[in-house]
Amino acid sequence: MIGTCELCDRDGIELTIHHLTPRELGGSHLPIAYLCKSCHKQIHAMYTNRELAIRLNTVLLLKDDEVLKKYLKWIKKQPVTRAVRVRKSKTK
Fold it and tell me: What is the longest distance spanned by two Cα atoms in the chain?
């Protein structure tokens, strides 16, 4: 599906479904977000599923996270056609 990423707000990009509470922690039937592949991969590289379930389980909480804000500021400037490398967290 092509649309606007709920995290980086880039438009005209292929979207994936992100379970705001990971499925393995009971999020199968809970709210989801439509994220571009870059944002989706990046949040899973930066945070554990447990941390996502407990602390970052809404789009607003993800956008307000200090570490993720730096990534979002950068990714918003990238063209939707650019393949972006995911950087793993040093603390995960």
Answer: 35
Instruction: Determine the Cα–Cα distance for residues 39 and 87; give it in Å rounded to an integer.
Output: 11
SS3 category, 79:
coil
What was the pLDDT predicted at 84? Answer: 75
Rounded distance, CA 40 to CA 29, Å?
A: 19
User: What is the CB-side half-sphere exposure of residue 33 using CA atoms within 13 A?
Assistant: 25
| pLDDT confidence of residue 26 | 82
Query: In whole angstroms, what is the distance from residue 71 CA to residue 6 CA?
Result: 14
The DSSP call for residue 84 is -
**First-last CA distance in the chain:** 30
